[in-house]
Amino acid sequence: MTIELTGKLVLLGAGKMGGAMLQGWIAGGLDPALVAVLDPAPPSEVAALIAEHGIAHNPSVETIGGVEVLIAAVKPQIMDEALQTVLPLGASKPLVLSVAAGRTIASFEAHFGKDAAVIRSIPNTPAAIGRGITAISSNANVSSAQLALACQLLSSIGEVVTVDDETLIDAVTAVSGSGPAYIFYLTECLDAAGRAAGLPDELATKLARATVSGAAELMHQSGIDAATLRENVTSPKGTTAEALGILMADDGLEPLMRDAVAAATRRSRELAT
User: Is residue 243 in some structural domain?
Assistant: First the structure.
């Protein structure tokens, strides 16, 4: 997707997520001259990308004019402090696009004004390989053109979905934002179960990793829903059916996952400011 910028893009924070986006933008043909990165110590690979393409790095904020979009990609814990350093950019009335968890639209309006155009988004870690999914919610000040621009920018790291009700972002965070950790833990558990069944450590790890990643890729490429894929591999009275009898019991995986997502949703609401 072509990124259509008429002004400057300022990336505040070039860590893992910010760096992944920057790489995607440059690979997608975005003019590096339109980008300014504000980060005192980006990772070495991001610093190399900045240097290779001659991207403005830590210029004086007062010298950056005509800002069309400000991407806030610093850690939530230091967001307020970081935003104080870029308040002069608000004079350009840019789109403010947050990729930080636990920061509400209202928290950005408190810095840039009630008339600021703000989009809150929740990416996830597969963004690092361009396979993330990002949910976005915007305030009433965001124009259709700004919404389209945000989708273009975030599409560089994967799929983008819109959420009309910002309060649902907490549940999104619990499902897709935290979700990769659940899959990684499932892999750990499958690995440990294989070892308990007598498999050598290295073989159990290899089988678990390849099985989880392969099943995920099959679901991705086939487009078939998960329930049908599960049924396709489950022969009546076979080994898979026997295992699923444990996992699908009344006290099995579904209620555990429901409780886990509910806990993450509650925590997201507690962290939101």
Answer: yes
